[in-house]
Amino acid sequence: MFEGSSAVSIQxxxxxxxxxxxxxxxxxxxxxxxxxxxxxxxxxxxxxxxxMKHILGLLKPTSGVVEVLGKDLWSMSxxxxxxxxxxLGVLFQHAALFDDMTVLENVCFPLKEHRREMSPSAIVxxxxxxxxxxxxxEKHFAKLPGxxxxxxxxxxxxxxxxxxxxxxxxxxxxxxxxxxxxxxMVDNLILETHRLHKxxxxxxxxxxxxxxxxxxxxxxxxxxxxxxxxxxxxEFLNSDVDLVKRFVDKGFYKK
Length: 255
Hints:
- The chain is an alpha/beta fold.
- It has helices at residues 48-55, 78-85, 103-114, 120-133, 150-162, 180-196, 209-215, 233-237, 242-249, and strands at 6-15, 25-33, 37-41, 63-68, 71-72, 88-91, 168-172, 201-205, 218-223, 226-231.
- It folds into 2 domains: 1-87 and 167-255, 3-Layer(aba) Sandwich (Rossmann fold); 99-165, no CATH class.
- The two termini are 20 Å apart.
């Protein structure tokens, strides 16, 4: 297992959207170690995206505790919650770029909103740095998102997610709908970003077990609103848990 402190600590998290008749998250417990790549996996409808929204502070638990970076999210004031979200970066499934802004303007946007002490030239310099870190060439900086390929939009989305130098980077189904070549490119981009962004914690929501084993250091599998297994790749592969064994035995992943 992992030593050291947790970036995220969740205790007995329950979430219902219908007044308690059904729970999407039902007594979920999870520690996400600081400084490593954690992949949250599971079938559709197991609560992965709902869990991520709790980590982002976008959903309030029905009951339970969500501590991120050492603080209970729902003990924060609204102002503290805004500041907290600045410590997170998110790459959404479809990049979620502003269609009427250029590549450079999209990455400048969070800096203009949250780093008002920075001069306009410093903001541009920082945005360029993050775009270069994400592998974008300068010739694309003045283009609109609609002029880019799917892989390039992912790169711009990642550059924007990194703009504020977040302590935790969250990826929501980053390879869904991509072909095998683009999937490998995005996986490698996540690995390279984690290497360059030293000390950061990466949390990836995915249904792709192969990718989870390829890039993840810590794997947590959700089922029926709970964590079925949390551990290293080797612990996952050697697990006696029936559902996990069926994933491996059916050839989703071969060591």
